[in-house]
Specification:
Helix content is 40%, strand content 22%. It is α+β, with helices and mostly antiparallel strands and 146 residues long. The protein has a single domain, classed as Glycoprotein, Type 4 Pilin.
Length: 146
């Protein structure tokens, strides 16, 4: 008897292969999304690092800007004090930013110094991320969920 078609075993093997490939693709996609979002944080804290140093050169002191934490919108306040800061559209940012004067990346008092922080927003894939840079260009990354 000459039958045309696929057996149940062949269909199950095909579905298993497709499932494995889809799982690998999903993990790779999520990793790519997180890497892109984290690039936003590192780029913006490095820009704030440069702008804060420029502010110090012009004024002889560092400034504190914004309340630090997840899901806090400080962009307008930061841009008012540091008008060259262009983080992107505030509606689509993955991180909240703040600047603290007289503190280093580890939270120790250091005068003069500053610490720039980026906190992941809760509606993003990077909600637990915290990036920091201080006046000595020391950077840190931690995961701290709200």
């Amino acid at each position: 008897m000459d039958r045309k078609g696929f057996t149940l075993v062949e269909l199950l093997i095909t579905l298993a292969i497709i499932g494995i490939l889809a799982g690998v693709a999903a993990v790779t996609y999520i990793g790519t999304i997180k890497r892109g979002a984290r690039m936003e944080a590192t780029t913006n804290i490095e820009a704030l690092y440069l702008l804060e140093n420029k502010y110090f050169d012009d004024n002889g002191e560092y400034i504190s800007l914004g309340t630090c934490g997840h899901d806090i919108d400080n962009i307008a306040e930061i841009q008012e004090a540091l008008p060259d800061f262009r983080p992107g559209d505030p509606e689509t940012l993955n991180y909240s930013y703040c600047i603290q004067a007289n503190i280093d990346v580890n939270g120790n008092t250091q005068i003069p110094c500053f610490r720039v922080s980026a906190f992941g927003n809760s509606n993003t894939s990077v909600k637990c991320d915290v990036f920091r840079i201080d006046c000595n260009n020391r950077q840190s990354y931690t995961e701290s969920c709200p």
